[in-house]
Specification:
Chains A, B: This is FAD-binding oxidoreductase. Two copies of one chain form a homodimer. The first copy, chain A, is α+β, with helices and mostly antiparallel strands. The first copy, chain A, is built from 14 helices and 17 strands. Chain A has a seven-stranded antiparallel β-sheet with strand order 14-11-13-12-16-17-15, with helices on both faces.
Chain lengths: 465, 465
């Protein structure tokens, strides 16, 4: 749509302002530069217009008018996304959910909670905890990442093995379509097959099909005990064998299964203030966690399966947490990976799914190919092995070649170019490696049906052909 | 679309036949009357044309041609649906998946299985079992209901509490759109956020957006032990309290929580060959099940929580299975409800979700209102209390009034007019009680985007406005 920017902007603002309070419309120099920030360091640009509604009705009016004027919008939650979806592009106004942060008290009987989209994940976790319940998703960015952003990317994190991704937590949504329709489905029923489940459209579609404004989320009973074990192992095969053993012997008690490959562990503990749980030097480290309902028995059972794994030669060494403090300390080591990696300038990182059966070959072949291009490249890999999801980082002078090697390798072994971070702006050139023309065409059909003027997060995931 | 039936049919057939083997196209008197059967007893009509493809490619060619000719299709799986979706309407041809019943050997490492849409659920269960794994969904119609039909209705059943509905089992689908595009996503990854999750479109949309031809389904470790307990309780409140206690104390061990209200239990055991586990006369009966990983310990733990519930006065009497045979016998009592109810001519039945907090009031008020219309009405209620899902049956001379009372009551208390059976043809007049105009309009928008000629299961769920 060809637009005369100044005239259109003035007309849009004149129609928006009667609906919105003064703090809801920020323009020009009054716009805080943080709206232009981007975790990738690629910069975006400071937007000319930031809209900060307080309710779904205000979001609806904004979307209706912006659709009419062809004003493109980029939706902002906590801006912690790792695929560039929130990076402001020329001509885009920001729609920020930052004033919609209410979290209701949990419904204890139904084990549900209703939160506005701008509420940080941690607020939901804390509200659940205060009611004696637990929220099933946890990610490193919990303090900043919002419920809406989590839903838009179908966030996963560390306990997908037990509780599933965000899709499994969403019992209902309130979402606004580009034409201003508000879809409200917040009854929080565990089972509801009354027509299409429209909520699914908005989970993982990265804000391109509508703007989520509220969510009804599933909560779980709070476990009576949490125990973490930190293990060193001789190979990925051993780590996969241990995963199988723990699943078989502990069933649903197993709540997380994280992996950290050499040389990442050694490099990160070198700069860590706290003592390392195990010495560096092993090829693979695993953090396994159980959440149990019998405080002592479940921990003993976990320890006994681990001891058997040591006796069987699957695990070389293991430390099991004996207190909540030790439990927390083991998780701090896991989170140290992010602190270490974020400090490396120019590091490239991808978030991939790989079938366990082909993972060892993928790692071997990708490393050889990357080193063939750049003999001094450093490769740092950790992730959620229980879900087949690796975070794979490369410190290299040949980033373009490394991306190419990794993503083509992922596609060749039946993996996914994004396990949990999404596609955003940064990965869309790789999407056709794992999605067929028929799938991409069906995605565009959905986009055209729900956002015919292409105003919502345009160009995220795919371009309109 | 106005059609000259005979000419169009001949043209359609002449274009289909080169693609299909002789057994794939059945017309006129050669059509077996069973394609016109309908569980509701409402009859449909024997179709003029039955198409029986053997592959997604054949399904694609059928859909492409039928879209072009405006030939409406009703998709048939096992025809066990309870909402009339498979009932043949005038002018509809049947697309039966009955020749696509292949079930691959499970992938043990990934704990997944790929099955064609026409395979009965039980084939998947048995293939999983033979590989030392378990499929998470079980329903009474397991021997006949197909994977494709299960997906189309997002089937639930008895272990949703632990494993979720079908949506939670689907890791990927192969589905054919009305225009003949084939969407294939069978990698079976636990985490994949590479663009829209198109699989979600086909789960629970009752065959109106595309035809599922294959599915990659999640499997679980087979439990080491299964124990069932059959309890009598004084009230629904007591049953809800027991559910809370079991969830809190047993966490994910709890795998089913079924309820059966008076007078159903007494009526059904009167005609049962096997001895009843507990005498009739209590207001409420519960069948609770655990699936554990420690053969003796988990059963003891279950029994000890139940004994505490007896001591606390929550449970009046309880029988706990001591062997696989006793376990099976308690489930047979649960399934006796269907045998008893199917024998009652003219019985009306609904499949509803009700929030636990309002369930007692709903039951009381619905019963009073139904009896005010028909003093001799009998009301039989059982269901999946752990999910808030009741199967509510009425033997009445005033069925229309009873439907009205039940569905309006459901809507008033924030429930769902279909928890797991779907809307089909039979419940669409009630859909607007629980879905807003904006939601219905969004559903129609999806239908128009994916089936613009309205050839796939037309008129199921909603009519095109």
């Amino acid at each position: 749509m060809s637009r005369n920017h100044d005239t259109t902007d003035r007309q849009l603002l004149s129609q928006l302002q009667p609906w919105l309070d003064a703090a809801a419309v920020v323009t020009g120099n009054a716009v805080d530069p943080r709206y232009g920030d981007d975790l990738s360091g690629k910069g975006g640009g400071r937007p000319e217009l930031v809209l900060r509604p307080r309710s779904a009705v205000e979001v609806a009016e904004i979307l209706r008018l912006c659709s009419g004027f062809g004003q493109k919008l980029v939706v902002h939650g906590g801006r912690t996304g790792l695929a560039g979806a929130a990076r402001v592009q020329p001509g885009e106004a920001v729609l920020s959910l930052e004033r919609m942060t209410a979290v209701e008290a949990p419904d204890r009987a139904a084990a549900t909670i209703i939160a506005e989209a701008g509420a940080p994940l941690q607020m939901v976790q804390e509200a659940a905890d205060a009611a004696g319940l637990m929220f099933g998703v946890d990610i490193g960015a919990r303090g900043t990442a919002t419920v809406g952003g989590n839903i838009a990317t179908n966030a996963g994190g560390i306990r997908v093995l037990r509780y599933g991704m965000y899709r499994a937590q969403v019992l209902g949504l309130e979402a606004v379509l580009a034409d201003g329709s508000i879809l409200t489905s917040l009854r929080g029923l565990a089972k509801d097959n009354s027509g299409y489940d429209l909520n699914q459209l908005f989970i993982g579609s990265e804000g391109t099909l509508g703007v989520v404004t509220r969510a009804c989320l599933r909560l779980h009973p709070k476990p009576a005990t949490e125990v973490a074990a930190f293990c060193s192992l001789g190979s990925l095969d051993a780590a996969i064998a241990l995963l199988g053993l723990l699943k078989q012997r502990l069933g649903p008690l197993l709540s997380a299964y994280e992996v950290n490959f050499s040389p990442l562990y050694g490099a990160m503990i070198a700069g860590m203030a706290a003592p390392a749980p195990l010495p560096a030097g092993a090829p693979v480290y695993v953090l396994a966690e159980i959440q149990g309902n019998q405080a002592e028995l479940d921990g003993e059972r976990f320890a006994s399966v681990l001891m058997q794994a040591v006796e069987d030669g699957i695990v070389d060494d293991v430390v099991v947490s004996q207190s909540p403090r030790e439990f927390r300390a083991l998780w701090d080591v896991r989170e140290e990976a992010n602190r270490f990696l974020f400090a490396i300038e120019g590091l490239i990182g991808v978030d991939i799914s790989i079938p366990l059966l082909t993972m060892a070959a993928f790692l071997r072949e990708a490393e050889a190919a990357i080193r063939a291009k750049d003999g001094s490249a450093e490769i740092y890999v950790f992730g959620h092995l229980g879900d087949g999801n690796l975070h794979y980082q490369v410190d290299t002078t040949e980033p373009a070649a490394a991306y190419e090697i990794i993503y083509r390798g992922v596609a060749a072994c039946g993996g996914a170019v994004s396990a949990e971070h999404g596609i955003g702006l940064d990965k869309k050139k790789w999407l056709n490696l794992v999605r067929s023309d028929a799938e991409l065409s069906a995605m565009r059909r959905l986009k055209a049906a729900f956002d015919p003027h292409n105003v919502l997060n345009p160009g995220r995931i795919f371009d309109i052909a």
